[in-house]
Recover the amino acids of this structure.
């Protein structure tokens, strides 16, 4: 019986010694850690100054591969196989990187516009029946209010959509969207809202006149821009007689 107890005690002591050996084999490497034999997990027990130089997990893994001699575990080393045991990377990249700034788009200035001058532009958006947004050849964009005519409102902030306003807006969208046109300026270049004031030519067609002639707009004469006033008055008279659009 005594002999049996002696053997049992020896077995328990031997088991107690063997177990930690498998859990923590070998001495710590220069980083202050080692691989656990059971599953090749790297345990960073006591991070040294060398380990603390790592700014992130990728840099730490590179140091482990350089300073640890366990080639078998190193081959399968991934971030999930590293146990930092509370260690955090103090020299994170974000502390040295300036916050990203949003790119700013510099607004291109309008070309020089003189009285009675003409400019070729592309219509990039139709705001309303008598207002469009255009792009000049230098990339500058601007809203343009057609001179001498007035279509029913559809986008006025303080007014409801007026009768025949949608039809006028849709007509202008159909005729001018993405079209290259010529802007002809009169005496006054801009209105009080900062919009350019112009006659719009589609080839040899004066679109301002077309809007009136087809009954989509009324004549609206505002001094000093009166170059084609007589044309517009005549076009409106004909539209009334023919009962077109607004005059039905």
């Amino acid at each position: 019986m005594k002999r049996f107890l002696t053997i049992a005690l020896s077995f328990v002591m031997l088991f107690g010694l063997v177990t930690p050996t498998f859990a923590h084999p070998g001495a710590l490497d220069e980083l202050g850690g080692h691989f656990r034999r059971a599953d090749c997990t790297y345990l960073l027990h006591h991070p040294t100054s060398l380990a603390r130089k790592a700014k992130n997990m990728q840099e730490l893994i590179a140091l482990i591969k350089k300073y640890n001699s366990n080639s078998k575990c190193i081959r399968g080393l991934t971030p999930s196989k590293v146990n930092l045991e509370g260690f955090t990377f103090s020299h994170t990249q974000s502390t040295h990187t300036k916050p990203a700034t949003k790119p700013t788009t510099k607004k291109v200035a309008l070309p020089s516009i003189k009285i009675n001058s003409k400019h070729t532009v592309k219509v990039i958006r139709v705001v309303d029946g008598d207002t469009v947004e255009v792009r000049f050849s230098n990339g500058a964009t601007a809203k343009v209010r057609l001179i001498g005519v007035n279509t029913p409102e559809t986008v006025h902030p303080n007014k409801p959509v007026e009768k025949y306003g949608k039809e006028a807006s849709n007509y202008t969208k159909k005729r001018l969207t993405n079209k290259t046109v010529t802007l002809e300026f009169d005496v006054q270049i801009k209105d009080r809202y900062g919009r350019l004031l112009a006659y719009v030519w589609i080839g040899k067609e004066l679109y301002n006149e077309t809007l009136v002639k087809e009954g989509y707009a009324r004549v609206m004469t505002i001094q000093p821009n009166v170059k084609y006033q007589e044309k517009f008055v005549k076009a409106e008279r004909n539209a009334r007689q023919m009962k077109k659009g607004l005059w039905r």
Summary: Helices lie at 2-23, 57-67, 71-75, 165-176, 207-213, 229-242. The mean pLDDT is 86. The two ends are 123 Å apart (CA to CA).
